[in-house]
Write a structure and sequence with these properties.
Helix content is about 35%, strand content about 20%. It is of the alpha/beta class and about 350 residues long. The protein folds into 2 domains: about 60 residues; about 290 residues, Alpha-Beta Barrel (TIM Barrel), CATH 3.20.20. Strands 1-2-3-4-7-8-9-10-11-12 form a 10-stranded mixed beta sheet. Strands 5-6 form a two-stranded antiparallel sheet. The two termini are about 30 Å apart.
Length: about 350
């Protein structure tokens, strides 16, 4: 039973109205309520402003049944570079804090979302993993990041305020999304609802280290885009930097991609963090190209975003370009992500709450 209005799907809302007022026009009432909560896809006003045709009794029902509190923005940092990224620190009702990032780029405004407070995967190059896992987020806390991010955006001036709305979502913030799959799927249902926030599945990307069987389930039940973190083409070496590989070896993960390649209908995104003198050689690039042969992929190379206490370093630009060129020569589509928000610790692998780490 949902406790918060932002984890109530439209189907559940219809069922609730039917139970209390009968099935006649329950679907229509649910549609109108949903539109009110999410402002007909414009990113929500808060508290919700309902259409005039919403029955007062229906409105009273949900307002008495559910919590409407949003995560609280306690601080924000804006990149001093020209990329325009902003990192928001949000406090949850239990006092825990998470981070989300707004990233303007090439005509779209992307929000990087967290799914957990901390992370259990312990990837050696990722600062978030040093926190350990403190808890999963609820679907309401996931959706709430989008609502709060949009409300915050409207109050700003400059680059971010020029966008009509947040239009792209990536689950690449704190946590491993597939380690919180149930809440993630509920959140995606709400985010993509045509009567709600109306995000296209093509505009939502879920990043994962490759948990099984959750990966199989995501590709079966969701139409969202997948970004798979590999970081080494060699099984033993991947286990050293990504402990998850001991439980879910690379060949098994690649096998799942091949199984779903035809039904997936678009290239898989492969994320590969380049670590100086660890996984950035031409031999690594050649092995990665071979590993991915026969699968439609877009390889996203991410030069390490260095952070305090990091055991690894970022490769030189020439080495990055050499790695990219090997993959391109093998016929793969490749981009190099020069991550946004590095100067405010908002880039990939940098999200961490020091106060949370101290408590853990």
């Amino acid at each position: 039973m949902p406790n918060h209005v932002l984890e109530v799907t439209r189907k559940h809302l219809e069922s609730l109205i039917s139970q209390n007022f009968g099935s006649k026009s329950a679907a229509q009432r649910a549609n109108r309520l949903f539109e009110g909560i999410y402002a007909r896809g414009k990113g929500a006003t808060w508290p919700p402003i309902y259409p005039e045709e919403v029955h007062l009794a229906s409105r009273d029902l949900i307002e008495n049944a559910f919590d409407f509190d949003l995560p609280m923005t306690v601080s924000h940092s804006e990149s001093s570079s020209m990329d325009g990224s902003s990192k928001l620190v949000m406090r949850l009702q239990d006092g825990r804090e998470i981070e989300t990032v707004l990233i303007p780029e090439r005509g779209r405004l992307t929000q990087c979302l967290s799914t957990q407070v901390g992370c259990a995967q312990g990837c050696r190059f990722c600062q978030t993993g040093r926190m350990g896992l403190l808890r999963n987020l609820t679907a309401a806390e996931i959706v709430g990041q989008v609502i709060v991010g949009e409300l915050w955006r409207r109050q700003q001036q400059g680059t971010i305020a020029e966008y009509e709305r947040i239009n792209n979502l990536v689950f690449m913030g704190m946590g491993e999304p597939l380690d919180n799959l149930e809440e993630l799927l509920v959140a995606v249902n709400i985010l993509t609802d045509t009567q709600g926030l109306q995000f296209s599945h093509n505009k939502i990307t879920v990043s994962s280290v490759g948990l099984l069987p959750q990966l199989e389930r995501l590709l079966t039940e969701s139409k969202t885009c997948l970004a798979l973190s590999l970081h080494s083409p060699f099984d033993a070496e991947r286990s050293k930097v990504m402990p998850v590989n001991e439980r879910h070896p690379l060949p098994e993960v690649i096998s799942v991609l091949k199984k779903h390649a035809d039904s997936y209908g678009r290239p898989f995104m492969i994320q590969y963090t380049l670590l100086k003198n660890v996984n950035d050689s031409s031999a690594h690039a050649e092995a990665l190209a071979e590993l991915l042969s026969g699968i439609r992929v877009k390889v996203n190379l991410i030069p390490l975003n260095e952070h305090e206490g990091a055991a690894f370093r970022r490769p030189e630009l020439a080495k990055i370009c050499q790695f990219r060129d090997v993959l391109k020569a093998a016929g793969h589509v490749v981009t190099v992500r020069l991550s946004k928000g590095r100067d405010i610790a908002a880039a990939c692998g940098q999200l961490i709450k020091k106060t949370e780490r101290t408590q853990h």
